[in-house]
Amino acid sequence: MRMVDIIAKKRDGKELTTEEIDFVVQGYTQGEIPDYQVSAWAMAVFFKDMTDKERADLTMSMVNSGETIDLSAIEGVKVDKHSTGGVGDTTTLVLAPLVAALDVPVAKMSGRGLGHTGGTTDKLESVAGFHVELEKEEFIRLVNEHKVAVIGQSGNLTPADKKLYALRDVTATVNSIPLIASSIMSKKIAAGADAIVLDVKTGAGAFMKTTEDAKELAHAMVSIGNNVGRKTMAVISDMSQPLGLAIGNALEVKEAILTLQGKGPKDLEELCLALGRQMVFLAGKADSLEQAEEKLKEVIRNGKALEKFKHFLANQGGDASVVDHPERLPQAQYLIEVPADRDGYVAGIVADEIGTAAMLLGAGRATKESEIDLAVGLMLNKKVGDSVKAGESLVTIHANREDVDAVIAKIKENITIADHADAPVLVHDIVTE
Ligand code: URA
Ligand code: CA
């Protein structure tokens, strides 16, 4: 097989065979095929697209390029939830204990945040003592006995994706549906998921800026999952404004606690139920999505979800008393209000820019090496569609320094007030096949 022939075949819009795709992926991972040929191939894919079969082949070839996590020692259907990334996205913190309370095994491998999106590991580490450095045996024991555990990223998973993604980044081939979909799905499958629930975000804070693009990506990923034997569903959700009210590590833990008590922000609760019911259904713990949702509401009402969160924190060394005493979470020194300068309705809260404002405070990492401050962040006092009076606080800044002028300026620039505005639709679509 020659790489130049494979490039030409894709350039001419023909379907590549399983063997040809594997030749590209393994050859590139092992350094036998140079960057310039894979760049040309990626650009051909960008313009000529891939068939469903090619997409499934590319995904599995990337899975097979490195190690995979074997979760077969865990009983039940392991359902993984994946979000394409957003600002103030507190869903994982809520969903892990929530679905575990219904005996859905949650065996989560989780990373740290970079840029304007926060990582679940960082958020959980704002609970004193909590850690994700678990031995694999301990991780599996915890999931079998308690249905939920989070382990830090380890192992050489999908090296082909790492290399290909870095190349795409510098060759203007990131924004290709087959390449994005196979990249995301390969990582989930390598991490051991039997079934996958996807939260595909759309809007300013998201990778996909339009709902149309988000839908196309969701369909692509659901199709790959189902074609490689992993039941997959997706929710398309709004990320034009941040999710919930809290943006920041400890602040989001507190928001998760409130949501598990049924007292959280309405949008966060709605999205958690939309994703959670798919997880419960795919795990075989309910006969229908409607029944799954009823069960989720029941464990919120009867306190079982909150109880599960306490055990989950304690099992991994965390101080579970924060659940009843959230004031024991790290607290920022200064609270600074950002007032509205006119009467009206909030018409826009640009998610990615507000995420960047939180990062400037120290809530997120500008580079992989940055230290983060778990206490700081933003609390939104208004969401899009809310009425506001001049002088009323739009946002409360939680800071550990007094000089936050640049943060205030960024927030003001990115919250618009108009004479009229409606709340955006949160769940745009549900993709099940
Ligand atoms: N996120 C990924 O993991 N892969 C892509 O290709 C794009 C976004
Ligand atoms: Ca939030």
Short description:
The protein is of the alpha/beta class and 433 residues long. The protein has 3 domains: 3-48, Transferase, Pyrimidine Nucleoside Phosphorylase, Chain C (Transferase, Pyrimidine Nucleoside Phosphorylase, Chain A, domain 3, Up-down Bundle), CATH 1.20.970; 79-325, Pyrimidine Nucleoside Phosphorylase, Chain A, domain 2 (3-Layer(aba) Sandwich), CATH 3.40.1030.10; 330-418, Pyrimidine nucleoside phosphorylase-like, C-terminal domain (Aldehyde Oxidoreductase, domain 3, Alpha-Beta Complex), CATH 3.90.1170.
Would you mind describing this structure in some detail?
By secondary structure, the protein is an alpha/beta fold. It folds into three domains: 3-48, Transferase, Pyrimidine Nucleoside Phosphorylase, Chain A, domain 3 (Up-down Bundle); 79-325, Nucleoside phosphorylase/phosphoribosyltransferase catalytic domain (Pyrimidine Nucleoside Phosphorylase, Chain A, domain 2, 3-Layer(aba) Sandwich); 330-418, Aldehyde Oxidoreductase, domain 3 (Alpha-Beta Complex). Helices cover 44% and strands 15% of the residues. It contains 16 helices and 13 strands. The protein has helices at residues 3-11, 18-29, 35-48, 52-63, 91-100, 120-124, 136-146, 159-169, 177-190, 211-227, 249-260, 266-282, 289-301, 304-315, 351-361, 405-413; strands at 79-83, 106-110, 148-152, 195-202, 231-238, 246-247, 334-339, 344-349, 377-380, 387-388, 393-399, 415-418, 427-431. The protein has a four-stranded mixed β-sheet, with helices on both faces. Strands 6-9-11-7 form a four-stranded antiparallel β-sheet, with helices on both faces. It has a three-stranded antiparallel β-sheet with strand order 10-8-12. Strand 4 (195-202), helix 10 and strand 5 form a beta-alpha-beta unit. The longest helix is centred in the middle third of the chain and has 17 residues, at 211-227. It is globular, with a radius of gyration of 22 Å. The mean pLDDT is 95. It binds uracil and calcium ion (CA). Calcium ion binds next to strand 6 and helix 11. Residues 345-418 form the Pyrimidine nucleoside phosphorylase C-terminal domain. One of its GO terms (biological process) is pyrimidine nucleobase metabolic process. This is Pyrimidine-nucleoside phosphorylase.
